[in-house]
Design goal:
Elements lengths: L1 E7 L1 E2 L1 H19 L3 E5 L11 H10 L3 E3 L11 H6 L3 E2 L13 E5 L5 E8 L10 H15 L2 E7 L3 H11 L5 E5 L9 E2 L5 E3 L4 E6 L6 H10 L10 E13 L5 E11 L21
Parallel strand pairs: 1-3, 2-12, 3-4, 4-5, 7-8, 8-9, 9-11
Antiparallel strand pairs: 1-13, 6-7, 10-11, 12-13, 13-14
Length: about 280
């Protein structure tokens, strides 16, 4: 059976959420999508996720949610991570960290889709080995799911590409997140795994990775902390659409998807985002 899986790049703040609210349902219908996976680690004010926004994303049509290095930026999400079965944090964080590293979604057609989240170690905060984590978890997922998708949340392109080849033939897709800049290297690897180094960003593209240009420039030039307000212009969804044969587990097609929306924001955050923070990273 052919399954179509839509994987959405890092959702950034309210502009990213609003474009999903406006565009996701018609996009799923138009493309005949069976499962929607979205990275939401920047969905609340540009850093972290809250329970309220988690629930909104599910209402918009997201089936599985992945996170990354900002998983615990909003501490109120911890209970959701412990109890919900459709949201995952990187599996190679400490074994004592709150949350799960993988989740499974049953499609309307019947076959199940699993998502596994991993985080890189180059230019990132300390984490356990992502290769060992994948080796440990994949045998269970191969029993529990028909299709396995991996979100590798990493900075270095070399590390992402290496993971793609490491998992080639063992999962149906490896997609990269975290850098917010879409890459043009989508391909089917030799053993049948769809791959792309980074999906990109769902949010304001007239920006520096979703943040206002002026505040980021001030921070880079002065090395002082500034509030990185969420930008507002040129709001887009960056995503990929993967077609997978659920019997062979192999990907047959991978396609980059870009959807634009005319969304302008009068404020950089709302009550669901929480209090804005001052920091010098993304």
């Amino acid at each position: 059976m052919k399954l179509k899986i839509l994987c959405i790049g890092d959702i950034v703040g309210r502009p990213g959420r609003r474009v999903l609210a406006e565009k996701l349902t018609p996009l799923v219908k138009k493309l005949d999508v069976d499962c929607v996976i979205a990275n939401a680690e920047n969905a609340a004010g540009g850093s972290g996720l809250t329970p309220q926004i988690y629930n909104k994303l599910l209402r918009y049509g997201v089936n599985l949610i992945t996170l990354g290095d900002h998983t615990y930026r909003k501490k109120e999400i911890i209970q959701t991570l412990e109890t919900a079965n459709d949201i995952v944090r990187p599996a190679n964080l400490s074994e004592y960290a709150a949350g799960k590293g993988s989740a499974v979604y049953k499609t309307a057609k019947g076959p199940t889709v699993a998502v596994l989240s991993l985080i890189g170690r180059i230019f990132m905060k300390p984490a356990d080995c992502p290769y060992n984590a994948a080796d440990k978890i994949l045998p269970r997922l191969q029993r529990d799911a028909d299709v396995i998708i991996v979100d590798f949340h990493a900075e270095a392109t070399s590390e992402k590409i290496a993971m793609g080849y490491y998992l080639d033939g063992r999962v149906s897709c490896v997609f990269g997140t975290h850098t917010h800049v879409v890459t043009a290297d989508e391909k089917i690897l030799p053993k049948g795994t769809a791959y792309i180094t980074d999906i990109g960003m769902t949010g304001p593209h007239n920006s520096v990775l979703g943040r206002g240009v002026e505040s980021v420039l001030k921070s880079f030039r002065t090395r002082m902390p500034f509030q990185y307000k969420i930008a507002t212009g040129d709001v887009k969804i960056n995503a990929i659409l993967i077609t997978v044969d659920s019997n062979s587990k192999k990907a047959e097609r991978i396609e980059r998807i870009t959807v634009s929306a005319e969304i302008e924001e009068s404020k950089s955050y709302d009550s669901d985002d929480g209090k804005p923070e001052y920091f010098n990273n993304f």
